[in-house]
Amino acid sequence: MRPITFLSVLLVSFCTNGQWQHTNTSPQIQTIATQGDTVLAGTAGSGVAVSFDGADSWTSISNWTEFTDPYIRSLLIDGDDFYAGTLTGLYRSNDGGTQWYLISNGLVGSQHDTAVNDILKDGQYLFLAVISGIYRSADNGANWTSVNSGFSGGAWCLVKHGPYIFVGGSGTGVFRSSTNGDSWTESNLGLTSGNVHDLLSVGNDLFVASDQGVARSSDSGDSWSSVNNGILNTNISKLLTVNGLLIAASSGGGIYLSTNNGANWSTINGGLDNTIMTSLAANDTYVFAGNTHNGAVAGDVMRQGISMLTGITEYPEASHLRLYPTITASQFTIEDDDPFPSDRSVQVLDPLGRQLKAVHIGRASRATIELEGAAGYYNIIVQSAGRRIASYNVVKCP
Fold first, then answer.
1. Residue 307 CA: distances (Å) to CA of 189, 245, 283, 285, 304
2. Each residue of 96-144: pLDDT tens digit?
3. If you write DSSP's letter for every residue of 170-212 in order, what string do you get?
4. Which DSSP category does 11 fall into?
5. N or C: which terminus of the chain carries fewer CB neighbours within 10 A?
6. CATH 2.60.40.1930 location in the chain
């Protein structure tokens, strides 16, 4: 019988943690929110699941009978207050999710006209994106006022970007306001779809997720350009940024990762048994991804360690280089954001420092390299002009 060594146990641990892992909550996840180790999961019919340990365990799930309709479309954590947007309005809990209270005074319309698709906190105001438009509250949700001047259609998502609040519509595209929602102007130049699912602000850039993929604006929404290279399923439901990475969840294609601000994307679907993704969130340790049932395959809140998503360069002068994934079954990719890259080669070394492979990648901005050999640890060296400029550790899983 082959002995189980500490190294083999560690290898199994790395290979397991380098993939998406089930956290065993609900089979129909619609939305996720995080604050530190607190994780909320909104379900399609069972209310809100709550974890206080980063989804190691789910210690509480709301009494779904407190909701008129326990289909949860959006979540927000603001200090000790939890907010849950449902098909029939907004609820708040201030006791860790045990009890929920309806706070929809001022929301007008029939049942699904007040479905809350997104919640945004900006200073003294709360904003809601609902099927019938946009609402604002200045008293923590006690009362709501419609703020739809210039906006048309159903509101789907909200984000603050610089001096503007942006809203994404269902069929009408993107609108922006510089007056805290008092008035809105259309912001659709270059967009290929009006069905906006999510908005994400990253530094000077703003990103849109739609049924036509991802678009980016570098001028506060004056114009947009598609950034879909590598995205095969363009029905993108959610966007997230973590440590300089962009992550996109798709409805049917799983999860995509970009290390260069959306210029290129690659799938990171290891461990997923269901690729109908609905939601993304993160804390300091994990990225969380929600999916909903796909036939006989149930959904769940999935998680993956942030440190497993990309390699760490050992040399500051090579900060423009990225390697991913660092946990792989067959290959890895090196990207170079330098506009004038040097001529480079890549060496693959085994744990004893023996060279197993050398690949000349020249001045390519992106190169994918097959990792041959048995499961184990490998050292990847990037060289230029005979000098080492970067080093990465990669684990190959069985």
1. 37, 11, 12, 8, 9
2. 998 999 999 999 887 778 999 999 999 999 999 999 999 999 999 999 9
3. ESS-EEEESSTTS--EE--TT-S-SBEEEEEEETTEEEEEETT
4. H
5. N
6. 316-396
Beta strands in 243-386 (DSSP E): 245-250, 254-258, 266-267, 277-282, 286-291, 300-305, 321-324, 327-328, 331-336, 344-349, 355-362, 366-370, 376-384
Indicate the pTM of the whole model.
0.79
Report the alpha-carbon distance of residue 41 to residue 250 in Å, rounded.
18
d(CA 113, CA 131): 5
According to CATH, where is 2.130.10.10 located in the chain?
20-308
Report residues of the chain scoring pLDDT below 70: 1-18, 60-64, 296, 307-319, 351-352
20-308: CATH, from 3.40.50.300, 2.60.40.10, 3.20.10.10, 2.130.10.10: 2.130.10.10
What is the rounded CA–CA span in Å between residue 82 and residue 75?
7
Four-way CATH pick for 316-396: 2.40.30.10, 3.40.50.2020, 1.20.1090.10, 2.60.40.1930: 2.60.40.1930
Distance between CA atoms of residues 333 and 327, nearest Å: 11
Residue 295, amino acid: G
Cβ count near 213 (within 10 Å): 24
Contact 306, 286 (CB under 8 A): yes
* 374-387 pLDDT per residue, tens: 887 788 889 888 78
